[in-house]
Amino acid sequence: YAYITEYTSRAGEQVLLNDRYIDPLIVQKHREKKERENEMRSRGERFFNTRETNQKNQNVTLDQLFGPENGSKKVSRKAVILQGDSGSGKSVTVQKIVLDWASDELYVTLFDVIFHLRCKELNGLSGEMSLVDLLDCCLTPKEIGQILKDIPQRILFIIDGFDELMLSGTKESLPTKPDIKSHPQAILCSLLKGRMMRESFLLVTTRSAAVDKLENILKKPQCFVEIMGFSEKGVREYFQKFFEDEEFSNQVYEQVKIHEMLYTACFIPVICWIVCTIFKRKGKDGVVTSELTTTTSIFVDFVFTLLKHHSSLNQDKELDLLKNLGQLAERGTLKHQVLFSRNSLPKPISDLPNIPFLCTFRQQERTFLKEMFGFLHLSFQEFFTALFYMLSDKEEAKIKVKELLESAGNGRRNVHLLPVIRFLFGLSNKKVSRLIPGEHPKLTTTVIRTQLEKWISKVIEKNIMDAFYMNDFILHCLYELHDRDILKKVMKLWERSGIKIHWSLKGVDCQVV
C-alpha cells in the first residue's frame, strides 16, 4: 500500500503514494429525503471559490470517519459510505487509509485487522466459497477464521467500488457465518446487511449514482460522506508534487489557471492527473490549447498525446487500435465488467507486447495468480465506449447509439450508461470531433448529434428520468456539446416543462452553468 502504479507507468515502475497523495475535500452528507431536497435547492447559491468557507463546519478528515478515537470509550459500530463522482479519488483515499493504519498513524485504537475487498475483482470470481476463502491473504484459512470469531468488533471491512458490483436479482439465501459457502456476491450482501460479522465496521466506496441502492442494503447506523475532489490549495499542491522541477510546475500551473474551465476541471483528481501527464509528455514547450474546455476534449488530447509519444504505429493502425479498445470497452460497459482475461481481449490487442491504456492486474485465485486487464480508470472505459461508436461506420453507429439511449432510459439500474452518453455529447462537439483523425468521426458525428438532440428533448418533455440525477447530467451534456442552437431548443423545452433546476455546489458544475 506504500506504492501506487500510475496509469501510464511502464512495467515495474511505481511511485510512493505519499509523493502523490493530497488530502481531498470530504464533507458530511445528510440522506433524509427532505434534507436532501432542501440541500439541492440551496446548492446553487454556493460557488466553488467560496466552497471551503461555506462548508467549514461539515468538512470531515480521515480520522473522523468513524467518530472519536478513544480507547477508553466504546465506539458504536458504523457503516460509513464514502461516495463521490468518477475520478474523485475514492480508491486512492482507501489506499491511504490502509497505509496510515498499517503505519500506526490512523485508527490504531479502533482496528486490529483491515480486510480490503475490491468489487471489480469479486465480479471475476466464480463458484461457491466462504467468507474465509474470500479473504484469502497472507494468513492461513484457520488463522482468518479465528480472527473473525475472536475479535469481530476490531475488524474493518473495506468494500471498494460498490457501483461496479454485479448483484444478481435472485432471492438467494444469505450466509450467516464466515465458514458457510455461497456465491461471492451473496457473501458481500450478507456483510453489507449485517447478517454476518454484525459487530464489525464497514467502509464502502461508491459512485454517487448507486448510493440509493446501497442505502437500502446497508445495515444501520449509517454515516454518509462525500468526497468532493481537490480544494484549490490541493490542486496547487498536486502540481508541485507531480513535477519534480519547481520552475516547470509553476509554469504549468499558471498556464492552466488562465483557462478557467480547464483549471476548474483539475478539482477532479483523475482529470488533474491527466492534465499533468499531458504537460509532462509535451515537455516545457507544451502549451494549453483553447480547445481544452470540456472533459471530453481533455480525454481526447490525452489519448492522442500518449499515442504520439509512446506509439510507433501509423495513423491507420492507431485507429484500428482505438477501435479494438473501444469494442472491448463497449462489451465491458454493457455487461458491467471492468476486468478482462487475456483470452477475452480482441486478438490485435492481445498480440501487442505493451497494450496502451490498459493496466495489468494479478488476481489471486486459490493457489495461483490470474492475469487480468482493465482500463486505466473506469472513466476511460466509458470514454472508449463512446469513441468506439464514433469510429464505427454510420449505420452501425446509429443502431448502437439508439440501443444505448433506449437502455439508459430504463430507470436507475442503467445509470452506469450515463457517463458514456455524456462522452458522446462531448465527441459530437464539432471542435472536438476535428481532433480525431480519420473519416468515420466526420461522417458519424452529424448522425449521432441528431440522435442525442432528439433523446435529450424527449427526456425533458416526458420527464422520463430521475430529476435528482438528471439536472446535473443534462446541463453537463449540453456544455460538452457546445452547440448554441441545440442549447436554446432544449432550454425552451425545459422552461415549458416546469421542471425546476436544482444545482450542486462543485466548482466544475458552477462553471458549466
TrEMBL record:
PANTHER family, alphabetized: NACHT, LRR AND PYD DOMAINS-CONTAINING PROTEIN 12, NACHT, LRR AND PYD DOMAINS-CONTAINING PROTEIN 3
Protein name: NACHT domain-containing protein
Entry keywords, A to Z: Cytoplasm, Inflammatory response, Repeat, Ubl conjugation
Keyword RNA-binding: no
GO annotation, cellular component aspect: cytoplasm
Domain NACHT: 78-210
Native organism: Cirrhinus mrigala (Mrigala)
Pfam families (alphabetical): FISNA (PF14484), NACHT (PF05729), NLRC4_HD2 (PF17776)
Subcellular localization(s) per the UniProt record: Cytoplasm
